[in-house]
Specification:
- The complex is a heterodimer of chains A (about 800) and B (about 190).
- Helices cover about 30% and strands about 25% of the residues of chain A.
- Chain A has about 800 residues and is an alpha+beta fold.
- Chain A is globular.
- A seven-stranded antiparallel sheet of chain B has the order 1-7-6-5-4-3-2.
- Chain B has a single domain, classed as START domain (Alpha-D-Glucose-1,6-Bisphosphate, Chain A, domain 4, 2-Layer Sandwich).
- The termini of chain B are close together.
- Chain B is globular, with a radius of gyration of 16 Å.
- Chain B contains six helices and seven strands, in the order βααββββββαααα.
- With about 190 residues, chain B is an alpha+beta fold.
- Classes of the chains: A alpha+beta (about 800), B alpha+beta (about 190).
- At the A-B interface, helix 5 and strand 36 of A face strand 7, helix 3 and helix 4 of B.
Amino acid sequence: MNDQANPSSAERAAKLQGMGSSRKRVEDARFTQGKGNYVDDIKLPGMLFGDFARSSHAHARIVSINKEAALAVPGVIAILTAEDLKPLNLHYMPTLAGDVQAVLADEKVLFQNQEVAFVVAEDRYAAADAVELVEIEYEALPVVVDPFTAMDADAPVLREDIADKMEGAHGTRNHHNHIFYWQAGDKEGTDKAMAEAEVVVEELISYPRVHPSPLETCGCVASMDKVNGKLTIWGTFQAPHAVRTVASLITTIPEHNIRIISPDIGGGFGNKVGVYPGYICAAVASIVTGVPVKWVEDKIENLTSTAFARDYHMTGKIAATNEGKITGLACHVLADHGAFDACADPTQFPAGFFSICTGSYDIPVAHCGVDGVYTNKAPGGVAYRCSFRVTEAAYMLERMIDVLALKLGMDPAELRLKNFITKDQFPYTSALGWEYDSGDYHTAMEQAMKTVDYEKLRKEQAANRAAFTAGETRSLMGIGVAFFTEIVGAGPVKNCDILGLGMFDSCEIRIHPTGSAIARLGTISQGQGHATTFAQILATEIGLPAEDITVEEGDTDTAPYGLGTYGSRSTPVAGAATAMAGRKIRAKAQMIAAYLLEVHDDDVEWDVDRFQVKGNPEKFKTMKELAFAAYNQAIPGLEPGLEAVSYYDPPNMTYPYGAYICVVDVDVDTGVVDTRRFYALDDCGTRINPMIIEGQVHGGLTEALAIAMGQEIAYDEMGNVKGGSLMDYYIPTAVETPEWETDFTVTPSPHHPIGAKGVGESPNVGGVPAFSNAVNNAFAHFGLTHTQMPHDHWRVWKTAEKLGLTG
Amino acid sequence: MELKAEQKIEATREQVYAALNDPEILRQCIPGCETLEKTSETEMTASVVLKVGPVKAKFKGQVELSNLTPPESYSITGEGTGGAAGFAKGGADIKLLADGTATRLLYEVHADVGGRIAQLGGRLIDSTAKKLSAQFFAKFCDLIEAGTQAPSIEAASDPTPNAQPAAANRIWIGLAIGVAVVIIAVALSR
């Protein structure tokens, strides 16, 4: 019986800065003062530097490699090629997707900028100079750039290393450039729904190849201590523990002799999940030389060789009644994985959670199938600020809903409202088998429409269209509506693992005698503010002020094992572990309190920061007092100390959702799209730190703007990367970024200890279709069903031109 | 990449031929050209230091002449490699037309450009290519004008010695333009 009326409880709770508090980010003190400690800040005595000589061809046989001139550069220590790695069996490394990837090109190169030779030198400049002098003679081979031609009968064999291995990691390959076919749902039932439907719409929705492009590129410092046989690697790792396990398996160094440390990370967005040749080469170079070796890629290397995202070509098909009730959904995806399948997906899900593609709608029957193919492009396929392939699925569906609305002559928002899963259907099992934990979509959508005055916007658009037709304006107004449901927090160990490692996560807490604490987690922040938010979860759970709790992550020698941070899994999984570990602390503290207060365990109750005797709140022991008691009292039946560890295996994923509305003005003569308004309502369940949520939403929306309006890693027909530098790859600045309006509803996850669902990736998932729908909607009355992203000025102008609108 | 352009040169066709016949003139005209050597009657090699934005490298090029229809048109194929900086493979069709006392030089280039130099964005490469072309023809026109007073021109355009050298000369002209154009083309990619 908490005494809710007692104002001191509320005051004490406020002091803790626990859940719900917009506590300022504790990380920012060092980041804003330039005191962050990133990989490239690490300087060790005698450290050498590595740099790659990379392929200028997209597909070619290596005729010869001449190291002579490069070795003559003063300061160059060694140059590694595949020939040097072969005796160590390290010229190939396993990928997270069950494929293998060449660490250094073995006899042939498969994509432009592929790693061919690794130069090790005393300084970065000597290494860079020597890279220019490594003479590699190539014999060009035919290039496969277009994934739609990858499985042509006469397509060249890209992967000679597995050419005769037709059983892949995800089933039978039916062509030498085929990786896998994966499907979910009821094909027969869906075909039937399509055949019987009153209305069917079909469209090829391509999500171009983009790159997460974190500000800090990938890199590492590998240091082999030959005396004690211990290999330490500092690196930009989103999953340090998994990297340790993989490193042990690859190098055969016992796992206890490998220490992986992720220091401060300058953004990851999925780019830093994978294992890259640079890590392996730096480690090998350090093992060989016995001194530390640093490898840090530059921006062009980052954009052109370490994990890209998307490149999904999705043919969506929706069946519906004339009244707009959806009766079936089908989707086939051609997935371009590049030269190696290096996707970062749970093992059983080679196309990630793409089967979330029924989204927020009550669709009775559905089927999706994904064919993965090899092309002469960089490997990757990571989840760029989204859970595995969720953003691709959301984009396809939300575009298709608009295509259907156009066909039916219905308002896109009305069509969505008509098909939403209703509140009373939760927990809801989708046609493709996911069990949605909780949601109230109608409330969210209606709140969004009301806030932006949707009806008025549509009236304004009608007036704009009339004015355009009358020749009074050259600007077209577009309104983009998107409603998404994510599937995050991977995930239950029973069906989610990466390389056999269950996707649980962990938290270990030590309470110090004076009543402060350290919590260590298996995750790693890349800017999300873990040190702030996880301390808040604990503050509420164990009643110590958040400012007295240190949160530490990323050192495998100290932190408990966990699968890392990506796919919005930190709060849903590690956040749950944190709460559960906190509850273990509290359970022991309760026994200590009962002993000190000389009552039975059941006769004390928790109140914010203390245990008090039931019915006698004046008799209490604060958590601070209990912490000290744990270290100085000999309590019968209780071990000294106050520590706990929790490994949390989530019973289900979480399903955050949101309603986004975007208003744009398109200048048909220049193709310039001006974002007039962007409203984002997110429901991420329990909100731990509203200010951090808002910051995450702002960041994610800005990335969504970038993807929808300009980002693309394009290749020409020779396989040259076009725009592999920030001169061409679009990163919005404050100038291009509109003002974001954020809003929320709260529908806690019923299975999560604190009801939190995760939010970091929602704005990317929902933002991209909102922008794209707005641009498409601007031209919808001219019959335009779909135009491919990115909606840069050129493409938008071309769309206007094709529709005969340009003067 | 594809490039189609035309350059008007204030000299007669014969004078243009004569100037193009001189490998030394050509070496001076191609920006960054270090060497230019004839390796057979229809082949030559050149090395050129090119800088496109942050990429600076020495390109070694080889070109070969074909489809000779003297003196109006030639085709040139060739390739150049610049090590880590990239490579180019392509060709050019060249026409020389008399235009009063001047000559119109028409060239059409198609080249496949790969490697780091091809990765750079269009803006940078376009401006570099424009600059290189302008430099080439400015220098070329200067040298022709200076050369019109030189007595050697008379000798070069004298048809008397025998027919063979004249044919070889025309081949040289094509090769020379080809080298220039293909090497410039290395810098032109989209």
